[in-house]
Design goal:
- It comes from Nostoc minutum NIES-26.
- One of its GO terms (molecular function) is DNA-directed RNA polymerase activity.
- This is DNA-directed RNA polymerase subunit omega.
- Its EC number is 2.7.7.6.
- The chain is mainly alpha-helical.
- The protein has a domain at about 25-70.
- The protein is built from four helices and no strands.
- α1 packs across α4 (about 60-70) and α2 (about 30-45) packs across α4.
Length: about 80
């Protein structure tokens, strides 16, 4: 029996979000490196996170976060 994730995002939604990120970027390599760096950073920052977050791979979480920032710039705030 397969264990189903508690997350609502499916593979097709992840692929759509990744395509949106790539199409919005001026350089595919650069956006790929940014996703990888965020995933790496989040992996080491989230040791104390709840078990629910640990089930999601860091790269998938980075894609979701970055696509949310792309579509909802108000969540970033002013720096």
């Amino acid at each position: 029996m397969l264990k189903r994730s508690k997350f609502e995002t499916t593979q097709s939604q992840i692929m759509h979000r990744a395509e949106d990120l790539i199409s919005a970027a001026s350089n595919r390599y650069r956006i790929t490196v940014q996703v990888a760096n965020r995933a790496k950073r989040r992996r080491y920052e989230d040791f104390d996170s709840p078990a629910e977050d640990v089930m999601m791979k860091p790269v998938l979480r980075a894609i979701i976060e970055m696509s949310d920032e792309l579509t909802q710039p108000e969540i970033i705030g002013e720096m």
